[in-house]
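agent> call fold_tool(seq_1)
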Amino acid sequence: MMGSTHPSNMLPPEDGKGIFNDVLERLKPGDIVFGNLEGPLIDQGAPKKCAIKLPQCYEFITPA
């Protein structure tokens, strides 16, 4: 996960500027590189998935 503001603020430094530095050399040779983002990018609103707070319910948001 690149970072989240919910349930607590855990964002990478410098807005994630160097977040892929460790894998950059492996990504560069590809003619096409795909990524899989498994989380919502939102800047407004609040998560509603876990309306009833259960220990096994997880919800994350990442600012765009």
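agent> call fold_tool(seq_2)
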Amino acid sequence: MLLDVTLDGVLLVDKAEGMTSHDVVALVRRSLRIKKVGHCGTLDPIATGLLLITIGRGTKVQDLLMSEDKEYAGTLTLGITTSTQDRQGAIIDQRPVPPYDENQIRAAFQKFRGDFYQLPPMVSAKKHGGVPLYKLARQGKVVEREPRLVHVYRYTVDRIAPPEIDFSVICSKGFYVRTYVHDIGEALGCGAHLKSLRRTKSGRFNVANASTVDEIKNKPRDEIARHILSLPEVSRMRGA
């Protein structure tokens, strides 16, 4: 029998759409029958992909793992702005989408490369006075937020099929892809929102090596536990 004392480290999970990050934590907690479980870097319910789940003593390196750069692949929709900056929000503005050429679209993306400031969205987990912004947003409140310095290391524009554009982006911690999309839409002059998003990498960790939600639901505890990266493995992968 697998003892809880061996359950220390990081489990890579490919989050399914419709789940919150806390749903994944609860699932891992139930499947492994261990209480000390956390996660690194919240993924919104519409997003899929890599979620680092920290287990046991792995929770002590949570802040280190959260500081890593992230890579995402997404699709934006031009012409519609929403209250949440993604497709789950209420439509607050609709504008016609001009016949942009590829150079105009790439120029809008190019404005958001390197260092720049982002205004955290009201519907986010960032806290104001100890209260997550999304809870204040549910009460109809809008509070002043401090812009934060973020960094885009690299991006690609992968498909242009208006009103949709597929893209990928490698960015710093604390980066809101929803806000990135919103700002690109404003730079183009027609507005935009995030249609879909997938996190493909976090630091040196890749979603290709992650366990799926179905695997965690259906596989025996011992088999799930074999996929937990030990703390020495995590340290080696981070190059520490």
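agent> summarizing second result for user.
The chain has two domains: 4-67+205-238, 70-201. Confidence is low (pLDDT under 50) at residues 1-5.
agent> awaiting next instruction.
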